[in-house]
Write a structure and sequence with these properties.
71 residues; mainly alpha
């Protein structure tokens, strides 16, 4: 669950960076930034699904952070 959790968490940073590019970037980069932002959003449901499928294989003491994401 660690990898999909990290990917989920980092996707917000990627989305934020891409959205900042909308404001400061060259006009030729804006469409790339939009695609990056959309992909960052699109990865999240898959990460959550992966965590749900594998949560029972995680040691009890490590489950808490993953369970918080699933709420």
């Amino acid at each position: 669950c660690e990898v999909p959790y990290e990917l989920y968490r980092l996707s917000f940073e990627v989305e934020e960076l891409c959205e900042r590019l909308f404001v400061i970037a060259n006009k030729n980069v804006i469409s790339d930034a939009k695609i990056g932002s959309d992909l960052a959003k699109a990865v999240r449901p898959g990460c959550i699904s992966n965590i749900k499928c594998n949560i029972n294989q995680v040691a009890e003491e490590k489950r808490e952070k993953f369970l918080l994401l699933l709420k």
